[in-house]
Amino acid sequence: MTIAANDQIDELWRVLETVLDPEVPALSVVDLGIVRDVSVEQDGGVIVTVTPTYSGCPAVQVIERDILAALAAHGVREARVRTVYAPAWTTDWMSESGRAKLKAYGIAPPGPVADHGESELVPLLRRRVAPNCPFCDSTNTEPRSDFGSTACKSLAYCNSCHQPFELFKPI
Amino acid sequence: MTGAQTPAGHAERDGATSAAEVPAEYLLRLADDRLVLGNRLSEWCGHAPILEEDIAVANIALDLVGQATAFLELAAVREGRGRTADDLAFFRDAREYRNIQLVELPRGDFAFTIMRQFLFDIYDVILLEALQQSADVELAALAAKSLKEARYHVRHSGEWVLKLGDGTEESRRRTQAALDELWRFTSEPFLTDELDRELVAAGLAPDPASLRSRWESELSRILEAATLTMPDDSSVARGGRQGLHTEHLGLMLAEMQSVARAHPGASW
């Protein structure tokens, strides 16, 4: 690959950093870790490889459209989005800057993904903890529901500032 | 599912066809279990007993329908008849659906919905764990993706079974009644047929019968903690995988497919 081609790839990544998740517009598709690869074919066509977050996430199709629109606005004439399912998306791929932006937006960032190993499918006594409050940073928080307004979030409550808040669930 | 979308992922497979592939028929089994159960669950949207549960059930329904879409897209490619995932979802009749009968039963009361979900979710996790080892790389990828979701599904339904079983007299009665009614539908997922035997031999899928002992041990552990009793009923409902269904599936599909069939070719 030539230096010019490398520059072009870097430039394409910068364009993709401007494409925001439609449901969590604090984050770009790059912050989320759903853009897995960007490449340029011999004929100059751009291929963006993405992986879906959740199987049923309705944002996936919008994201694909937004990526193509951003590239077109940047003068890329030939582009396509390729979807891959393996390896499956994990919140461990979320960038540090993405985590900071998420918190500033009022959503607690995801903790590390638990190792499932040989654990029982349904623990009889699940130790349920919630992350620090994204508003006041208190540790006096409690989980409310594993499910939230979008597939990627759950609900918690802060006993210090008495705010309900959402957290990005580790998956 | 939307009518206008290009099937994500499988339309562009880089021409890489793995030598080892399960046929569309097997993918329809996986897809239809999810599509039908997802639709049954979605009937609770706006009707669940509490707001958080309404959101939870709708989320799980969405996961299942999303998984079904991916399996149907792959099935559409593999059958090679020019049909799309939407064609497969909306233009097949009940006789062509390959889901187990367990998932098509009407949603019943909340205890019935939760118990049915738990019975399916345990099976689903165990099946997907095996399928992520499949020699069919595309199937393995979809299984690994779906497994992440199935793990929190089973935690959710399992914790509800504990709460309802070991709850009030009424919640326990309803939950036990649901289990008793559902029991004869719980053998079907573990029946092995000719297609299964071929796929086992090729390293593409597990023998359904081999999944049963772990399913039973996970189930009995939770039932015991929930003060519920495993039914003593040996009758077995079967036939879903071959397209034989209860009357309930046709009625559900009639509603689910009505818009697509009233406006064939429409996109939205």
Provide the descriptors you would attach to this structure in a database record.
heterodimer; A: 171 residues; alpha/beta; GMP Synthetase, Chain A, domain 3; four-stranded mixed sheet; three-stranded mixed sheet; 3 helices; 7 strands; B: 268 residues; mainly alpha; Ferritin; 10 helices; 0% strand
Summarize the structure.
The complex is a heterodimer of chains A (171) and B (268). Chain A is built from 3 helices and 7 strands, in the order αββαβαββββ. In chain A, the strands form 2 sheets. A 4-stranded mixed β-sheet of chain A has the order 4-7-6-5.
What this model shows, in words?
- The complex is a heterodimer of chains A (171) and B (268).
- With 171 residues, chain A is α/β, with parallel strands linked by helices.
- Chain A has helices at residues 3-16, 59-73, 96-104, and strands at residues 35-40, 46-50, 79-83, 107-108, 141-145, 153-158, 164-168.
- In chain A, the strands form two sheets. Chain A has a four-stranded mixed β-sheet. Chain A has a three-stranded mixed β-sheet with strand order 1-2-3, with helices on one face.
- The N and C termini of chain B lie close together (10 Å).
- Chain B has ten helices and no strands.
- Chain B has a single domain (24-260), classed as Ferritin, CATH 1.20.1260.
- The chains are: A alpha/beta (171), B mainly alpha (268).
